[in-house]
Design goal:
By secondary structure, the chain is of the alpha/beta class. It contains eight helices and 15 strands. The strands form three sheets. It has an eight-stranded mixed beta sheet with strand order 4-3-5-6-2-11-12-15, with helices on both faces. A five-stranded mixed beta sheet has the order 1-14-13-10-9, with helices on one face. It has a two-stranded antiparallel sheet with strand order 7-8. β9, α8 and β10 form a beta-alpha-beta unit. α5 runs parallel beside α6. The longest helix is centred in the N-terminal third of the chain and has 15 residues.
Length: 307
Amino acid sequence: MFKRAMTVGGRADEEPAGRHASSEAETRTEISQSFPGCLMAIGGAEDRTSDCELLRVFAELCGGTRARIALITTASGVPARSFAMYAAAFRRIGICDICELRLASHEQADGVHALSALARATGVFFTGGDQARLECLAGSRANLILRGRVAANSLVVAGTSAGAMALGPVMILGGNVRANDYDGDNQEAAEDTDDRLCMGLGLDLLPAAIIDVHFTQRRRLPRLVAAVAGHPPHLGIGIDEDTAVLVRSGRFDVLGRGEVVTVDMDPVQEAGPPVGPVVPGGRAQGMRVHRLHADDAFPLERRHPFR
C-alpha cells in the first residue's frame, strides 16, 4: 500500500507502508524539539456556512465546545465584519467563548489586554485581509507568547489567507510574479499590482517556511518559486482555497478539497541542470516540487512526502 504525491521534474520515490511508521517515528524523535506543537494554515475561502470542515477541525483541536478562541482580526480592513463572520461560524459549531483582538499596533500587541487574552485562550485564529498589517505583531510580547505556547503544545494557532501567510519567519507581502515574465500575461489577483516580489517579517511560528495561499486559483507557483529562491533554506508551502495543512510533531497533514504544493531547493540538483518545467514556459533551477492532496503527510525535516 502506497500513498503518492507528484514530484515535478523527478521520480517520486515509493515507501512501503511498513516503513512508513518507522520513518515517521524516527522523524518525530529527531525534531520534536525543533518544530511547533500544533498549527493550521488555511489557503483562504474556507467553508464558513455549511459543513465548516476545516473550522471544525480547528475547534476540536482547541477543546471542542470548551474551546476558548481569540480571533485576531488585525489583517482585515473591516475587522468588525470579519469578527462577526467567524464568530457566527464558530457558534454554529458549538463554540461560545470567543473574543476579538484587533491589535492595530506593536504597542497594543505588547499590552496587558492582549497578553491576558492569549494566556487564557486554547486557540488563536488569524483572519484574512492584508498580511502587511500583521508585521506590527512581529517580535511583540504577544508574538513571543504565541511562539512559546505553541512550542509547549499548549495552544492551537490557525490562520487563513493573509493570516496563514504570516505564520512563517518571513512572508510574501506582494508582487505579481509571473512565469518568468515570458508572455506578459498577468494571472495574479487584482490586489497584486507590483511586479517586484516584496517580503516582510512574519510571526515565526512555523520555522523555515514561506506560505502562499489561494494558490492554484491565482496561479501563484511562480511567486512561491521566486520567494524560495530568495530564501534558499526555507520550504515553500502553497495552499489552495478551502484546503489546509495541519502542522504538529514535525510534519504536516493535508486537509480539505484542494491541493498543497511544496517548493524547496533540491540538495541533489542544486549545482546540476534545471529540474524540469515547473512554471509555464520556464524552468526552476535546482528546485524540488511536490504536489499533495487530502490525507497526504509531509515531514518537515526530510522534506519528502510519506508514501
